[in-house]
Amino acid sequence: MRWLSVVVAGAACYQPIEARVIAGAPARDGTADTAPADAAFTCPAGNATPAFSPQAFPAVYSPCGDYSVSEAAQRVVATCDYADQVLISEGGLVGELSPVAAFGSDGVHVYDHPRLSPAGDELFVRVIEMATGSATFARYTRDGSGWSFAATETYPNIGITDVSAPTAGTPRTMLIDDDTDLMYELAETSTDSWSIVGTYAPSDLGMTTAPFGPVLTDDGLHVVFGPSSYLAGSDWIYYAARADPGSAFGSAQPLLSAPMQPPAYLESSCGRMYYEQDTHLDYVDQQ
After folding, report:
1. pLDDT tens column, 132-183
2. According to the model, what pLDDT value does residue 9 have?
3. Looking at the domain assignment, is residue 10 inside a domain?
4. How far apart are CA 287 and CA 54, in angstroms?
5. Which CATH number characterizes residue 103's domain?
6. What is residue 2's predicted lDDT score, i.e. its pLDDT?
7. What are phi and psi of 6, to 5 degrees?
8. Is residue 108 part of a domain?
9. Given strand 211-216, what is the order of strands in its sheet?
10. Is residue 264 part of a domain?
């Protein structure tokens, strides 16, 4: 998977910013809306795309990247830069993030690519051995003292360097992309063991370039991602849907109402979407 790294000098504190218009339309009231998105919102039928407000609001102000969101738990994790150390950090959906003690620098491992489960009670992390550069993926569970190691995940041997957060269904699934321009869907066929259940070429999604950073909604029915051309300056996030978790996704369409940077997290209701913007996390609501 092609991962867009974020390097920020120092550990500067990001202050709250005002809401801003990102598609040229007038701002509404210029104040941040910290309430959950309206539960009455639903995703459009078929392969139509949801329409989002052109007004974005700030959520997380820390110097971070590679965000993962649990709407149910109102939590966010990311990899953040602190005085030249990139550390996994966590916090609420509004404010700043703090380093997680379980993933501090130990001189032996590097921890990155954190992925929160929908309920916010599990965390999937890539663990790199500094001496050899070899990487494994581990699952951690939350307890009263923080995050504790639960198991090492077993994935197909297809050169996986990153995974998306899992869905909430049974079996739960996740997406990956790779350097061959394919997107794979994995299912947890037994505890901590995953198998390929779907493969998508760009043409299967109506694309001419490969998906970048695909993220499933918690129900597994919708996916948002950037095109690989994002690395050359494209700002659009694409959206695709399917009727049920066992079906294939239809053609992807750009979310033209709100140009944003991937990776993104879309609520299952399509009521709100979080996305990375200049090392912090913003969101837009459906209109």
Report:
1. 999 999 999 998 889 999 999 999 988 787 899 999 989 999 999 877 788 9
2. 31
3. no
4. 9
5. 2.115.10
6. 36
7. -120, 125
8. yes
9. 211-216, 222-227, 238-241, 253-254
10. yes
Cβ neighbours of residue 232 under 8 Å, at least 6 residues apart? none
Measured in whole angstroms, the distance separating CA 85 from the mean position of its chain's CA atoms is 21
Distances (CA, A) of 252 to 60, 82, 211: 28, 37, 10
Total domains in the chain come to 1
Which SS3 state, helix, strand or coil, does residue 101 take?
helix
For residue 17, the one-letter residue type is: I
Contact 61, 96 (CB under 8 A): yes
Q: What is the token pair recorded at 182?
A: 């394919």
Ranges under pLDDT 70 in the chain: 1-39, 229-235, 257-259
CA dihedral for 56, 45, 269, 204, sign (positive or negative):
negative
Which domain does 117 fall in, by range?
Answer: 40-285
DSSP-derived letter for residue 119 is T
Domain-embedded: residue 25 = no
The verdict on whether omega for the bond into residue 263 sits within 30 degrees of 0, i.e. cis, is yes
**Which pLDDT score, from 0 to 100, does residue 6 have?**
32
